[in-house]
Design goal:
By secondary structure, this protein is mainly α. The chain is 80% helix and 0% strand. The chain is elongated.
């Protein structure tokens, strides 16, 4: 029973890891990736390129979380 439960709980993680899209945590763990992606999203907004709205939204959430973390660390 516990093996089945473990397997079922791992399925969403496996599916998400195969999607190839970085998560908010991926961006927080890799500031260079966050910076590069944010710059690409900004450039694409002002250009005619087709951009990945989902990845840009995730990068935006990571930027918001990064700012919240910085503010919280000031008040600790």
């Amino acid at each position: 029973m516990s093996k089945q439960l473990l397997l079922i709980s791992l399925i969403p993680l496996i599916i998400m890891s195969c999607s190839g899209k970085p998560t908010v945590q991926d961006f927080l763990d890799d500031p260079e990736l966050l910076s590069k992606t944010t710059n690409q999203c900004i450039t694409q907004v002002f250009g005619d390129e087709v951009h990945d709205k989902e990845t840009c939204a995730i990068a935006k959430e990571a930027q918001i979380q990064k700012a919240k973390n910085a503010i919280n660390s000031i008040f600790e």
